[in-house]
Design a protein that fits this description.
Structural class: mainly alpha
Shape: globular
Distance between the termini: 28 Å
Number of strands: 0
Radius of gyration: 21 Å
Number of domains: 1
Number of helices: 20
Largest sheet: none
Strand content: under 5%
Order of helices and strands: HHHHHHHHHHHHHHHHHHHH
C-alpha cells in the first residue's frame, strides 16, 4: 500500500511527461487522486498489504496521526485535481504545458506523502526539502516576473530554514549518542537518555527551520508572495497540504520533548509564535489590496491558532486536529474560488472586483460561504475548534490570553469579512457581462469541500470523530 502511494504518482507523472497528451494528463491527475482516495478508505477500514521489502517498510509507515494528515491531503488533492481541468481550459494550456503541470503536481504530492509517512527524522528532512524543489516550479508555472520573484524568495528563505533544521538534527544526534538512531520510535522510547541541553538547542533549530516552511511569524516572509503568485490550484495545495506536512514534522519532533518531560520549553515557543502570527495577520489584514494575499495571511493566522492549541498540551490537541482539517478544506475552497474570480476579472486587486454575485452568482456564493467557513461562523467546524482552544486556555490556567486571542480574531474577521462582502456585492461595470458560467469543474470541488465541512460541523460522523481522536491520541 505504501509503495502505491509513493510510486504511482511518479509513474503517472513520468508517463504524462513522455506522452504529452491532454487525455493522458487528465487520466494521470485524476487517476492518482482516485488511488489516494482508495488508499485512504483502506486505511480507515484498517486494510493493509505490503509490497515493499522489509528494510524499506521500516522507513515508511501509517500511524494514527499520519493517517489523519494523509486523509486531509487526499481530500484537498482530489479537489485540486478536478479544479485543474478548469484551469487547463481557462488558461488554454497546450499538451506540453499540461504535462509539466501534471508531473510537478504529482511529484509535489509524492514529496508531501513522504513527509507524512517517514518514520526517520533524517528521511523526513529529505522529503521536506523535496517539497520545496517541486513546489517552487509550480509557483513559477505562469512565468511572470512577479511569480519568478516569489519562487526565488520561497526557495531562498525555505532553504535557509531547512538548513537550520539540518543543524538541529545534527545537534540532536550529538545529544543522543547512546541511542545511535534517528527513528522516531527509538527517540520516543529512549528520550530520557537524550542530553536535555542538546535536545532543547536542537529543537530550537528545528522549530525555526520547519517553522519557516509552515509560514509562522516572524519567519513567514515567503508565504504571502508564493501563495498569491502561484496558480490558484497550487495555492490550494500550498495552504491546505504543504503547511500541514511541515507541521506534522514539527509535531513529531515535539513528541520527543514530551517523552523527555521537556514540553514546557517547546510549549512556550509554540505559544509565543502562535500569538505573534495572529497579531501579524490582524495588522496586515486591514491593509491588503490583493485578495490572494489576504488568503495567505489568513493561512498565517490559522497556523498561529494551531500553534496556540499545540502549546496547551492535552487540553488542546483535539481542537488542533479539528482546526487543521477545517482550515485545510476551507482554505482550499477559498483559493480555488479565487481562481474563478481571477478568471472573471483578470485582476488580483480587491478594488477591481465588484458585483461578483451578479457577474457569477455561483462563484459569489462560494466566495461568501468559504469565507464564513474560515472565519468560524456556525455551523462550520472552525467555530468549534476555536471554542475548544479558548476552553483549553481556561483549563491550562491561561484564561487571560483569551482576551488578546479574541481581539486579534475580531480584527481579522472584520478585515477579511469586509473585503469579501465588498467584492461580492455592488454593481458590475457596464462593459462586463452578468451571470457568466465557468463550467462544472470550476464549482464542484468547492461545493464538495463545503458540504464536508457542514457535515462535520452539524453532525460529525463517528468515523470522523474516531479519526480525529486517534490523531489527537498521538500526543502522550
Amino acid at each position: 500500500m505504501i509503495s502505491i502511494v509513493l510510486f504511482i504518482p511518479v509513474l503517472f507523472g513520468v508517463i504524462s511527461l513522455i506522452v504529452k497528451n491532454k487525455i493522458v494528463n487528465r487520466i494521470a491527475l485524476l487517476g492518482t487522486a482516485i488511488v489516494y482516495i482508495l488508499i485512504t478508505i483502506a486505511q480507515w477500514l484498517n486494510i493493509q498489504w505490503y509490497i515493499l521489502p522489509n528494510w524499506l517498510i521500516s522507513y515508511f509507515q501509517f500511524d494514527s496521526i499520519g493517517i489523519f494528515f494523509f486523509s486531509v491531503m487526499t481530500i484537498v488533492f482530489a479537489s485540486v485535481s478536478v479544479y485543474s481541468l478548469f484551469y487547463f481550459k481557462a488558461h488554454n494550456l497546450n499538451a506540453k504545458q499540461e504535462s509539466i503541470y501534471t508531473i510537478e503536481i504529482l511529484l509535489f504530492v509524492t514529496a508531501m506523502t513522504g513527509v507524512i509517512l517517514s518514520t526517520h527524522l533524517a528521511l523526513l528532512w529529505v522529503f521536506v526539502e523535496a517539497t520545496t524543489l517541486t513546489s517552487a516550479i509550480l509557483i513559477y508555472f505562469e512565468k511572470k516576473k512577479s511569480s519568478l520573484e516569489a519562487a526565488w524568495k520561497y526557495v531562498f528563505i525555505c532553504s535557509i530554514g531547512i538548513a537550520l533544521a539540518f543543524v538541529g538534527i545534527i545537534l540532536l544526534s550529538i545529544g543522543s549518542r547512546s541511542i545511535n538512531s534517528l527513528y522516531f520510535n527509538d527517540l520516543y522510547n529512549r528520550a530520557a537518555e537524550i542530553n536535555p541541553f542538546w535536545l532543547k538547542v536542537s529543537f530550537a533549530f528545528i522549530f525555526v527551520g520547519l517553522g519557516t516552511k509552515i509560514g509562522i511569524a516572524p519567519i513567514h516572509a515567503w508565504l504571502p508572495d508564493a501563495h498569491s503568485e502561484a496558480p490558484s490550484p497550487v495555492s490550494a495545495l500550498l495552504s491546505g497540504t504543504l503547511l500541514n506536512s511541515a507541521l506534522l514534522g514539527l509535531i513529531r519532533v515535539q513528541e520527543i520533548l514530551i517523552h523527555a518531560h521537556l514540553e514546557s520549553f517547546s510549549n512556550f515557543l509554540f505559544l509565543l509564535t502562535g500569538f505573534l502570527s495572529i497579531m501579524v495577520s490582524a495588522v496586515f489584514m486591514l491593509r491588503l489590496k490583493n485578495y490572494k494575499r489576504m488568503l495567505a495571511y489568513s493561512s498565517i493566522e490559522n497556523m498561529g491558532i494551531i500553534f496556540i492549541g499545540i502549546s496547551l498540551g492535552k487540553f488542546g490537541v483535539f481542537a488542533v486536529m479539528l482546526h487543521i482539517l477545517a482550515h485545510s478544506l476551507s482554505k482550499a475552497s477559498l483559493f480555488l474560488t479565487s481562481g474563478n474570480i481571477l478568471h472573471l476579472y483578470k485582476s488580483k486587486k480587491i478594488d477591481d472586483v465588484n458585483g461578483l454575485l451578479k457577474k457569477d452568482p455561483r462563484t459569489g456564493w462560494l466566495w461568501i460561504a468559504s469565507t464564513l467557513a474560515i472565519i468560524g461562523m456556525p455551523p462550520f467546524p472552525v467555530f468549534l475548534s476555536k471554542f475548544l482552544i479558548v476552553k483549553a486556555l481556561w483549563l491550562s490556567g491561561l484564561s487571560w490570553l483569551a482576551i488578546p486571542f479574541f481581539i486579534f480574531l475580531i480584527i481579522i474577521t472584520f478585515g477579511m469579512g469586509g473585503t469579501v462582502f465588498k467584492m461580492a456585492f455592488g454593481e458590475v461595470s457596464p462593459e462586463q457581462p452578468e451571470d457568466q458560467r465557468l463550467g462544472f469543474s470550476a464549482y464542484a470541488p468547492q461545493l464538495v469541500l463545503l458540504f464536508i465541512l457542514l457535515i462535520i460541523g452539524i453532525n460529525m460522523p463517528q468515523q470522523m470523530f474516531t479519526l480525529l481522536n486517534n490523531a489527537a491520541g498521538f500526543f502522550h
